[in-house]
Design a protein that fits this description.
Elements: H1 17-25, E1 42-50, E2 57-62, E3 66-70, H2 77-84, E4 92-97, E5 100-102, H3 107-113, E6 115-118, H4 122-126, H5 133-137, H6 154-168, H7 184-193, E7 202-206, H8 214-229, E8 233-238, H9 241-247, E9 250-255, E10 258-264, H10 270-277
Parallel strand pairs: 3-8, 3-9, 6-7, 7-8
Antiparallel strand pairs: 1-2, 1-4, 4-5, 9-10
Length: 283
């Protein structure tokens, strides 16, 4: 079914998964090709970082690189993402952004250092559901829209938001529409899009396609690839193995709050990732 209408009827033996998805979307499903974009310069370096939730974390992200953080629920992915954003600060270790050491004591410090976060709980932490699309898209760079009288320049805000709505392919009647009225996929595009108006060099994505449909996933993959082409460093945390193999260049696997494996994406498989994610490397 699509849009309240029966589109087709088939025996399972007569149709493929891809064909079902294309009929659900009403368009052909195209693959997302990763482009060559990685620079040899580290934009993010974490060395021996520890807090109450994660332990002895060491990792790097290069400019233009999408680095996966794989793990099952409870492995520590979300806790690591929040620590990098200063929500649950590291108590030991070092974090360097663009070669400069930073103490990420709170989210404001993380943003000033150049880190943005798209959290797993989109409606609770990633967007302001009762506010407009325009207000959400400009939230992380609100100071750029304040006029000389200290008030928000709503026209400038709306113009900029309209531009990004078009760029991101957000389906919305008007930029004044409440974000809470949008579909999950469009809400997630807004959650990611608000960082495009800032100068963050590292974007941390925690389960970025959670609760979105297949078509929106493809759009988000392309958006992430576009950010990497702009030489942003992307940290992509998820328990969806097929996404990791589709989107990332390199992968770290977490188990019990620790990184237990590192691999180039081209050199691994879902089975290998799952083996390490279930503690196989610890036996």
């Amino acid at each position: 079914m699509r849009d309240g209408q029966l589109i087709s009827r088939h025996l399972l033996t007569d149709i493929t998964k891809e064909a079902v998805v294309e009929q659900m979307l009403g368009r052909q499903l195209t693959s997302v090709a990763k482009t060559s974009r990685v620079n040899a310069t580290n934009v993010l370096t974490v060395e021996s970082a520890t807090n109450a939730d994660v332990h002895d974390i060491s990792l790097t992200v290069q400019t233009g690189e999408v680095v996966g953080i794989a793990g099952l629920v409870g492995a520590g992915k979300t806790e690591l993402c929040k620590a990098l954003f200063g929500d649950r600060p590291f108590q030991e270790g070092e974090v360097r952004i663009g070669g400069k050491a930073n103490r990420l004591r709170n989210p404001q410090a993380a943003i000033q250092a150049g880190i943005g976060l798209v959290p797993e709980e989109r409606r609770k932490e990633g967007i302001l559901v009762a506010d407009s699309v325009a207000e959400n898209l400009t939230a992380a760079a609100a100071h750029d829209f304040v006029n000389r009288w200290g008030l928000m320049d709503r026209r400038k805000e709306a113009d900029q938001a309209s531009q990004w709505v078009k760029e991101l392919g957000i389906k919305v009647a008007d930029v004044k529409q409440e974000v809470g009225q949008l579909s999950g996929g469009n809400q997630q595009k807004v959650a990611i899009g608000k960082w495009l108006l800032t100068d963050v060099s590292v974007l941390v994505l925690d389960e970025p396609t959670k609760g979105v449909d297949v078509g929106a996933k493809q759009d988000i993959y392309r958006l992430i690839d576009g950010l990497a082409q702009q030489q942003k460093g992307i940290l992509y945390a998820t328990s969806e193995w097929d996404e990791l193999l589709t989107v990332t260049d390199r992968i770290y696997v977490m188990f019990d709050g620790r990184i237990v494996h590192e691999t180039k994406t081209a050199d691994t498989s879902e089975e290998t990732l799952l083996w390490y994610a279930t503690g196989g490397g610890q036996r």
